[in-house]
Amino acid sequence: MRVPDELVRSQTKYNGEAGRAFVAGLPERAEEFLDRWGLRVTGPSMYGMASLVLPVVRDADGARAALKMQLLDEETEGEPVGLRVWDGAGAVRLLDHDGATGTMLLERLDEARPLSAVEDTDEALGIVAGLLARLVAVPAPEGLRRLGDIAAGMVAEVPEAAARLGADDAAVLRDCAAAVREVVGEPGDRLLHWDLHFGNVLAGEREPWLAIDPKPLAGDPGFDLLPALMDRFDPERLLWRFDLLAEVVGDRRRAAAWTLGRVLQNGLWDVEDGEPGLDEEQVELARLLLARRA
C-alpha cells in the first residue's frame, strides 16, 4: 500500500503531529480492517486531502467496496452518522464502520467518473441541485455539530478578524456577518452535507450519481450552496446558479444570508491562516448577493 506524498503533506500541514501519526499508522490500520472485515485489495490506493481509500472486494460475497481511512476529528466523526441517516438516498451507502478510528467500509462507486468530468456546467449543476434537494430533506439526528453554534462563534470573531484586513475586505466580512445575524436565531435542523461540489459526486451503479465525503452538520440548507457555486467560477452565471440551488432549498433570502455565512466562514479561516485578503471570487459572489438583498 502506497501512502501518497500529497496526503502526507496535507496531514502534516493541517493536523501536525496527529496527522503524522495518522499517516504512520495507515499500513497497520489497513491490515487490521482488511482482516477484520474479510477484504481483499483490488487496485491502487486513492486519496483526498484527509483520507486514504482502498478499492476492495469482500471475500464472503465478492461484493466490490471501498475501505476509507481518515483521521477522526469534529468534521469526520459525523460522516458515518449522516451516511446512516441517508441510507444511500443521494449519497454513497455505508456498509460498515468502526467508531474508535472512524474507518468505514463504503459502497464502491466509479472513481474514474466524477461529476467534474461532465463538460456541461449547467448539466452538472442540475445534478448537484437534485442531490442537494434529497440530502437536505432529511432532519439531522442528535449529536451532530449545530450551525447555530458555529454561526454564533463566527460572528463573535469578526471584529478581530476585520482589523487584520484591508478596508474593502473588512467591509465585506462585516456585511456578511450582518446578514448572518438576521438568521442566526433560526439556524435550521436539516442534515447538511457541507462540502457538496462536483468533485464530491461520483457515478454509481445503483444510481447514476451519488454524493461522497460529507462533513455533516445540522442547519439551514442555504449553508450548503457555496461549494457548487464556486465550481468553474463564472461571474456572469453566479446569480443564475444561486437561483437554481436556492429554489431547491426554499426561501431565497435565507439562502442568500447563509451563503454569505459560508463566505464569512471561509474568510475567517483565511485570516486565521495568515492570508493577506479574502478569496476574490467569493468576495465577488458576496457583493452580488449583498447588492440583491439591498
Give a verbal description of the structure.
The chain is α+β, with helices and mostly antiparallel strands. The chain is built from ten helices and twelve strands. Strands 1, 2, 3, 4, 5 and 6 form a six-stranded antiparallel β-sheet that branches. It starts with a helix and ends with a helix. The relative contact order is 0.12. This is Aminoglycoside phosphotransferase family protein.
**H/E series, N to C?**
HHEEEEHEEEHEHHEEEEHHHH
Helix content: 40-55%
Give the number of helices. 10
How many beta-strand segments? Answer: 12
Rg over alpha carbons: 20 Å
Distance between the termini: 55 Å
Average pLDDT rating: 96
**Uncertain parts:** none
Shape descriptor: globular
Fraction in beta strands: 15-25%
Name the structural class.
alpha+beta
Biggest sheet: strands, sense, closure? 6 strands, antiparallel
Please provide a brief summary of the model:
Helices cover 47% and strands 16% of the residues.
Describe the protein's topology.
Blueprint: H1 5-24, H2 26-36, E1 39-41, E2 46-47, E3 51-58, E4 64-70, H3 79-86, E5 94-97, E6 104-107, E7 110-114, H4 121-135, E8 145-146, H5 147-162, H6 167-183, E9 190-192, E10 201-203, E11 209-211, E12 217-219, H7 226-230, H8 238-249, H9 252-272, H10 280-293
Parallel strand pairs: 8-12
Antiparallel strand pairs: 1-3, 2-3, 3-4, 4-6, 5-6, 7-10, 9-12, 10-11
Helix pairs in contact: 4-8, 5-6, 5-9, 6-9, 6-10, 9-10
Feature tags:
alpha+beta; 294 residues; 12 strands; NH2Glyco/OHUrea_AB-resist_kin; three-stranded antiparallel sheet; six-stranded antiparallel sheet; Kinase-like_dom_sf; Aminoglycoside phosphotransferase family protein
